[in-house]
Amino acid sequence: MFRILFAVAEPSTSNSNLVWLSALFAVILALVHLFSGKLRFLERTPRSIWLSVSGGVSVAYVFVHILPELSQAQETVKGTVGKALLFLEHHVYLLALLGLAVFYGLERAAKVSRQRNRKAGRGDFASSGVFWVHIASFALYNALIGYLLLHREEPGVQSLLFFFMAMALHFIVNDNGLREHHQRTYEKTGRWILAAAIICGWAIGLGTQLSEAAIALLFAFLAGGIVLNVLKEELPEERQSRFWAFALGASIYSALLVAL
Prior knowledge:
The chain is mostly helical and 260 residues long. It has helices spanning 2-6, 16-35, 49-78, 91-119, 128-148, 157-207, 212-234, 243-259; strands spanning 8-9, 209-210. It contains eight helices and two strands.
């Protein structure tokens, strides 16, 4: 397993134009975290149409683009692991499940902490301990996305563009949820850490390249995280989410991914 996750090869980012484009996208994704809070129309109930559309786009990217590639990547992973790990027949999908479970746990911790603070009369926000766990986890998540701007399962400008668009909209959804849980602490500190994590992930990707099996596993974890982070924002009844907007975003982006 160590060989899968940490095997490093020479960078394959010889196309300087693609590298510069990925750098531009990394900066834009960082700016999304820094300035999406200015979009006050997103903070209302019923849930903003644009947040539901963004969630639909993110989920469509996972189910139409990432998961089909993971089925192929599973064969790569099987050919890389040693005999000691052959009992794990679905390595890639287990990582997707892990990604979903990790972010579900983080969401539950934030909600429980907010409930305790409300009962104690300290305000409707999570504790500082939960904040730092939340931010550290999402910083790693963002660094992974920054890294994957340079190293994806499918190389090329078109793949990069679709990945960037899906992640930009996904970050708006994430940002809205994190701001709700942590309020001023997120605005003052959290968003800056998450923005910096994207740039750090991109910089790491510029100098290193993991094996194909490792990238497949990272994409799998990301897929599970995206699905949970979107659905946790859309499903709660108090959100009064707009199904038609979610379905519209998912349908349009799915059609683009299939057609191109």
